[in-house]
Amino acid sequence: MRFFLGALLLLAIAAIAPMFVRLEYFYFAGFVVLQFIVLATAWNILGGFAGYVNFGTGAFFAVGAYSAVALYKAVALPLGLQILAGAATAGLLGLGVGLLTLRLRGIFFSIATIAITIILETVVMNWTYVGGAKGLPILRPTEIPLHFTNYTQWLFFVMTGIVLIAVAIARYIQTGWIGRGLRAIRDNEGAAECSGVPTLKLKLAAATVSGALMGAAGAPFAQYLSFIEPSSAFSLNYAVNALAMPIIGGTAHWIGPVIGAILLGSVQQIVTVTISSEMNVLVVGVMLVVFVVAAPEGVLGLWRRYVLKKGDE
Amino acid sequence: MKPADSSPPTNALLEINGVSKHFGGFTALDGVSIDVGKGERFGLIGPNGSGKTTLINCISGALTNDGGSIRFDGEEISRLPAYLRTRRGIARSFQIPRPFGSMSVLENLVVPLEYVAHSGSLHLADTRGEAMEILKGMGLADKADTRSNRLSQVELRKMELARAMAARPRLLISDEAMAGLSSNEISEVLEILFKLNATGISIIMIEHIMQAVMKFSQRLICLDAGRIICEGTPESIVENPDVQRAYLGA
Ligand SMILES: Nc1ncnc2c1ncn2[C@@H]1O[C@H](COP(=O)(O)OP(=O)(O)OP(=O)(O)O)[C@@H](O)[C@H]1O
Ligand SMILES: [Mg+2]
Question: Which residues does residue B186 pair with via DSSP β-bridges, in sequence order?
């Protein structure tokens, strides 16, 4: 209950923010951080809870983005439906990759996610309807919904909504029997199966939900930039960040990826402004190494150890 | 308790017929046939590498047998995924303990309680209370909140059994649950298994500790190099020259 009141409060804040914060850059940068919260949360459902690492977040993100673009261009689909469509196609992609590889334990899924990124990027490069390799400029709708004064504010609000849905789903999964099943899979898949856990079904469900949320995060991307091109939609950045953020925040709890995304996302925005966007990759790399070595359970692990003073019971 | 009897049971719960398993060119099981009756206490012995764990893996679904049939309660199960076999009533412990290391001991038991015993009407179940009851029975109650990767070997073996019991099986397979236990602890575990059996659960015990398995079993088979070399009551097994040869290498 507290969780849902908190979520509503955040949504309300995002709705009235334009009355207080007029600086356009806030929405522009904030949108990126929100996008990363969704990606990190989505990644963690499979990678953190079940231990199946996805290296192809960029592919799922881009599938969401390009589904939205194609439908927007074809029938001027409204944003809400673009997001649903992006989520549906990326969810199907997750299910498909899962059906091909999750019957096997181990790294086959991870390898397939790399392959799928390369394949799909090549396909989109040659898909002229959505601009091919050159990219495609997007004309945003002229009408701006609700009381917002520009479209970026509206997108910021919508992305806040997606964040809340993603986090609510992750929390629901983690705290219930599904989450316990996924954890059992991560800890010991053979023992999980012998304890009655339908491992394949759970992994497929997690891959589908995770993929769908990544697609939802990608769907508003073209509207946000007023442009889309394969190299930015399929950027390796998404794969790296979606993996680094949960690891830095902590993978065991739904709040971990949120913390990691806010932390890493903000640092990157600051670095982009003060130094250069090329430095971002370096920042992520260094932070990842530091955390993996010094705090393998992420910010959450540090919190438990130094604030709650618990061992690792 | 029914008297020790070497004849195969008429009311078989588990019927294994001509099961074989190959790893590449190596034959780990070669036409193994066994019947285990409802409520029976069944011993499975054999020297190291004779195929005992492989047979258990084929029964529980961790491996798929290459030939032969495995029927449980009258139905063929040898192509079912492991989780469905567990739901039908076959639970096992692992020879090398496989805890869910990031979970507490209690949560380790909640997994099968949620996914087997109460999969269907989970909302009505007090799975934690039930898990606690089982832990008490195993003498692990004080470890309930300990993270399971912190347990000692002995505690891990007990947890393996406790977790198998949490699946509320009709057939429990214990794969060397007593290795490394002190004689007091062995009697403790034996007593637990006897009690379980008294509630009607069939038990297959794999054990190198002869004293325990002979005391426990009503009927035994001895495997050697993937074949059954003899079958009978504990008394007849100890005296069997093939068994003595297999064990002593004479
Ligand atoms: N997955 C596998 N791949 C290849 N060979 C295997 C595999 N599992 C078991 N084996 C081989 O099959 C034979 C039987 O092994 P198994 O583990 O069933 O023996 P066991 O009777 O349980 O022995 P122990 O008493 O030592 O536990 C051994 O020679 C073993 O090396
Ligand atoms: Mg063995």
Answer: none
